[in-house]
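Many introductory courses stop at the sequence. We go one step further.
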Amino acid sequence: QVQLVESGGGLVQPGGSLRLSCAASGIIFRLNNMGWYRQAPGKQRELVATITSDYITNYADSVKGRFTISRDNAKNTVYLQMNSLKPEDTAVYYCHLHLYRDYWGQGTQVTVSS
């Protein structure tokens, strides 16, 4: 079955960096578009970034120039490099795949605070 497992979250000071990873299994990873979403307390889940099977990327305006999504097909893993983090980036970050239906990872908490 399809599984998405995130890692790499944590507590970081404003201006710091984190790299999230999402390991996928149960799919032909290289053929699938992947994405990262986030959900802050009291807010709806929102798109952060996507990457297609052809490595075309798309970002939310709020993270453009600070976050970078990438993928390693040999490792079945998608990454989210987050730089210049702000307190408003605090959220649970989820890996996403749409393959006939939506699949989500368990989420990883990112907290940006001094």
